[in-house]
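ok so heres the complex, four chains, lmk if somethin looks off
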Amino acid sequence: MTEATRRERLRAETEREIRQAARALLVESGRDAVTLRAIARKLGITAPALYRYYDSHDALLRQLCDDICADMAAALYADLAAETSGQVGCKVRAVCHAFRRWALAHPQEFALVFASPRDPIGADQFGSVFLQLAGPLIASNQAANHADSPVPTVLHEDLVRFQQVLRDAVAEHGVTLSDSVLNLGKIYHVVQSWVRLYGHVALEVFGRFPFAVSNPEPMFDTMLDQMLSDIGFAEDVAVQ
Amino acid sequence: MTEATRRERLRAETEREIRQAARALLVESGRDAVTLRAIARKLGITAPALYRYYDSHDALLRQLCDDICADMAAALYADLAAETSGQVGCKVRAVCHAFRRWALAHPQEFALVFASPRDPIGADQFGSVFLQLAGPLIASNQAANHADSPVPTVLHEDLVRFQQVLRDAVAEHGVTLSDSVLNLGKIYHVVQSWVRLYGHVALEVFGRFPFAVSNPEPMFDTMLDQMLSDIGFAEDVAVQ
DNA sequence: GAACTCTTGTAAACACCGTTCACTGAAACC
DNA sequence: GGTTTCAGTGAACGGTGTTTACAAGAGTTC
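and the predicted structre for the whole thing:
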């Protein structure tokens, strides 16, 4: 069954160990500790050997970002699957909670993927995670057909583009959305929800609220309620 | 008049040059380029000499954060002062615009101060900037006395603490706020506004919107309108 | 099985990094 | 004038990314 050569298997195994070691170093000691020599030390090899697998330290970090995105996506999917109620609002809430939980449990990973001024980071990876999560949720919410709240015309161009991206993402799940379900007002609210979700989580992870918040979770829940109501899931969810 | 010794003057001058060099390196080439040896090279001295001024590389970075916060505060104050209309809403809008403009013009500084998982960063510095800006604005908005929208009781403890912090900040400007002006609902909206402001700006600086936004400024303006209306400045501002 | 190539690793070297330490020379002080 | 204080030096230590030449085993070809 396995087409892989013995050599190919060994190579794949080593590569897996490299990623694993890099990840462990990031988690344990932060970005600056993810060193070629430290990784090599963990594997019992020398640093230059790593150049047989990655072109540079930077390339290895990029791969690390992709791995993190994939793992995060898996965690979010798992929490989404655990939410078995049919209510879409509950699912959205579950994913948002999962995102916050993941970020708080993996601050170094979060910082690397979501708060790096460098461009090469796996933005594509993350974007596809976002779409693959948002797509089905939106698709399963055809019932919640709300009025199109007006959006400034300056935003139309961007929102229409995003509308198309979302439509494509949903289409991969075999669902076609009408303009009334996926109207521009709702698109705008999706973007605004991401702004608030990301804002709260990043502020919490980085400790940049302007005062000490002793109990951030209910604050997050409250924001989530407001967000869900804005986006059209008001009645789905009982306040926890 | 100058009590400073010649030696003291020279020392102060050198310290200023160190900060300036560190800042230039950060801006030009990012956080990782802010190296003791690179700084020393810019000053024409050797790296160990810097230990006469800072205990470690880390201490120097902390100082850099403080400097950045101070400069950012100065930029925000300048833009606030340029907004001469009496309307408080316009002033809030001006400060928010200034924050976005500053962040986009100084992505490396923004990342260092606002998106570092490390604690030692100048969180105090930033908190005081926030309070010294928010304080007067809230103080000058006594007229806008809005009804207290209900806030979950779980949040009361934290919001009351923040209320006290804000009250103290405002008191330093010789203004005493009544509970009706600074009610918990409004406090909550202040926090939520910071979440949205930070969220939008960070997403824009780090390029983490889930799709390409060709024209983020009107999106920011639209969010600002919503924010100001939430917080009680609805009628102050004409949409730009 | 021998000869060959391809792959994976090594060791040495280069230039860079933070940090420590013993030192120099000049300014400041008494 | 003698002494202390202090900014700065040079050498050194162990760490880093990266390149280079080289060894040794795996896979392939005849």
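quick notes: Residues 57-82 of chain B form the longest helix (26 residues). thats all i got rn
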